[in-house]
Amino acid sequence: MKVLGKVAVITGGARGFGKAFSEALLKRGAKVCFADIDVSGGQQSQRELAAKFGETSVHFVKCDVAKEEEFRDLFRECLSKFKKINIMVNNAGILDEAGWEKCIDVNMTAMMRGTYLALEKMNPENGGEGGTIINVSSFAGLYPAHFLPAYVATKHGILGFTRSLAMDPLYQSQGIQLATLCPAFASTNMVTDIIQGEAGSRQKILYPDVAIKITENMGICSVADITDGFIELVEKENCNGDVLLIDKKNGKQYQFVNKTTS
Ligand SMILES: NC(=O)C1=CN([C@@H]2O[C@H](COP(=O)(O)OP(=O)(O)OC[C@H]3O[C@@H](n4cnc5c(N)ncnc54)[C@H](O)[C@@H]3O)[C@@H](O)[C@H]2O)C=CC1
Ligand SMILES: CCCCCC(=O)/C=C/[C@H]1C=CC(=O)[C@@H]1CCCCCCC(=O)O
Fold it and tell me: Can the keyword Oxidoreductase be found in this entry's annotation (predicted)?
């Protein structure tokens, strides 16, 4: 897709990947509506991005994606401000093994809701123009990790859900593509807080020492490495069904290249 002139909705955009993806799309001439549960972080990012790309290009919406009505309001607000939605990025995610139900609500249920809402708004029968949906899974969407069982379950779910919808000829006929981004460890707060031992962070996973050891073996990607893969997916002419893994040692690798099991 050519990004210039398109409109994107990005969840979890106050910091980390979501903020970097927003900036990368704005740089290429898109308008971005980004959402986050963190109001002060979202407002700060809004100020930074508006100063670089103009007040009329970027809009922050306070939204807890685990709350259905707030997620619906995010789409309403984006349509009211920018009139269309061409790119949807379900990026918001958390680690919370003790509160695993919350992990499922945010990482899995909300990702499904965001996908279904985007499919509805992108449908030409509803006035949409088709579009691209990128769901952010993880290496943990393909491989087990005993320090993160609930998180791994949600990330496997994202992968299976997104690949399944991508096979549906209905959405293909509507000009809608769905792809999955699977980063390994990258240097956002989700990972660096645990390595640095920030208060409360190590309680979010099991066996933090094992996780830290694995990061030492696998290496840690920069946010720019992951953003580069994200933009590659969005700008591809056909990303439907793609699963893009990115890790420090091997860089970008597409999985399941024949896209179906048949
Ligand atoms: N950093 C990493 O190594 C990797 C991260 N991921 C995934 O990438 C995505 C982004 O993660 P990072 O940027 O690393 O994390 P991060 O923790 O830096 O940023 C996540 C953002 O999501 C927001 N958020 C959390 N719960 C929310 C909710 N209920 N509603 C709205 N916003 C909410 C947070 O406030 C935060 O701004 C997540 O889905 C994560 O699972 C995947 C693979 C590797
Ligand atoms: C010391 C850093 C610990 C960071 C927290 C953590 O345990 C999980 C990290 C992940 C952050 C987002 C992800 O999706 C990462 C998980 C990647 C797991 C990959 C495990 C692969 C393997 O064991 O081979």
Answer: yes
Choosing from 116, 143, 151, 254, the catalytic residue is 151
Instruction: List the beta bridge partners of residue 89.
Output: 10, 134
Ligand 2 pocket check for 205: Cβ under 6 Å: yes
* Residue where the block lists tokens 């740089």: 27
Looking at residue 258, what is its pLDDT?
63
Buried b (16+ CB within 10 A) or exposed e, 40-52: ebbeebbeebbee
Interval between CA 218 and ligand 1 midpoint (Å): 20
The sign one gets for the Cα dihedral 169, 171, 176, 181 is: negative
Which atom of ligand 2 is nearest to 191's Cα? 4
Residue 234: Cβ within 10 Å count: 26
- Report the C-alpha gap between 184 and 10 in whole angstroms: 20
Give which of 75, 78, 87, 90 is closest to 131, Cα–Cα.
Answer: 87
Is 207 in the active site? no
Average model confidence (pLDDT) for the chain? 97
User: pLDDT tens across 26-52, in order?
Assistant: 999 999 999 999 999 999 999 999 999
pLDDT in tens, 111-164: 999 999 999 999 999 999 999 999 999 999 999 999 999 999 999 999 999 999
